[in-house]
Amino acid sequence: MPKSLPFLKRASLTRHLVAQKLFKIMEDKQSNLAVAIDTTSPEQLLELADKLGPELCVVKTHVDILDHFTPDIVKTLRTLADKHRFLIFEDRKFADIGHTVSHQFRGGIYQISEWADLINAHGVPGPGLIAALKGSGLLLIAEMSSQGTLATGSYTRKIVEMGDAHKDCVMGYISLRKLSKDPGMIHFTPGVKWEEGQDSLGQRYRTLDEILIKNKSDVIIVGRDITHAADPKHQAALYREKAWNAHVKAC
Ligand code: S5P
Questions:
Q1: Bridge partner residues of 87 (DSSP)
Q2: Residue 38 Cα, ligand 1 centroid: separation in angstroms?
Q3: N or C: lower Cβ tally within 10 Å for the chain?
Q4: How remote is the CA of residue 223 from the centroid of ligand 1, in Å?
Q5: Residue spans per domain, the chain
Q6: Which residues share a beta bridge with 33?
Q7: Which residue has its alpha carbon closest to ligand 1 atom 6?
Q8: What is the pTM of this model?
Q9: What is the pLDDT along the chain (251 residues), one digit of tens a residue?
Q10: Which architecture characterizes domain 7-250 according to CATH?
């Protein structure tokens, strides 16, 4: 199995500014850990982002699950992102025609384009939505961690073809493993726990060694195993260290 290149080397192999920035953050902080802070409380989101910030390269949000929203919440999150040097990834999973998606991205209550460094989209509608999402770093969803996902086989291959053909906007993939041959593309993998398993609603978990060493992905996205731990800060520090060691091993 060919070895992966170090992140700093890969930063020079992409022209995507957000990808370059992320590669550099990962190398400087020795962190390829993204944390999904899936809480309904804005106060808890900000508190966890501040507490875990030093361990992370990315904070992943679902703003539409917050039980209330004001622009101040994301303004504070941006301040924390600058303080701790992490990127904000709004996991909106856009999946409509370009015209609609453009409004969902730039307008509405959340105005995602104003504060998100990273966003993601399904490729089902075709490449029209990619052009509409220009601005933040875009990840296409090529595979999913959930049981019975339809994003497999030729669908997955076509997503990677679509993404690799739009490198001015697309900087990587949500996937279970490395898919693109382009070292400038960054692969993010959710569904991570210390041990393999499942939740009660179809989420499937694998270990970080399985994801980063065996399947050559780049960034792990960990949610409840950190946010619901007895000591989230300690757990995040452990995940950071182990994920970084796995990355070094894969190089
Ligand atoms: O295929 C996917 C894609 C995503 S972005 N499977 C996922 O679980 N996710 C997201 O990763 C999901 O929306 C959640 O925010 C996070 C996983 O959370 P956990 O608590 O199961 O680790």
A1: 58
A2: 9
A3: N
A4: 7
A5: 7-250
A6: 220
A7: 145
A8: 0.98
A9: 568 899 999 999 999 999 999 999 999 999 999 999 999 999 999 999 999 999 999 999 999 999 999 999 999 999 999 999 999 999 999 999 999 999 999 999 999 999 999 999 999 999 999 999 999 999 999 999 999 999 999 999 999 999 999 999 999 999 999 999 999 999 999 999 999 999 999 999 999 999 999 999 999 999 999 999 999 999 999 999 999 999 999 99
A10: Alpha-Beta Barrel (3.20)
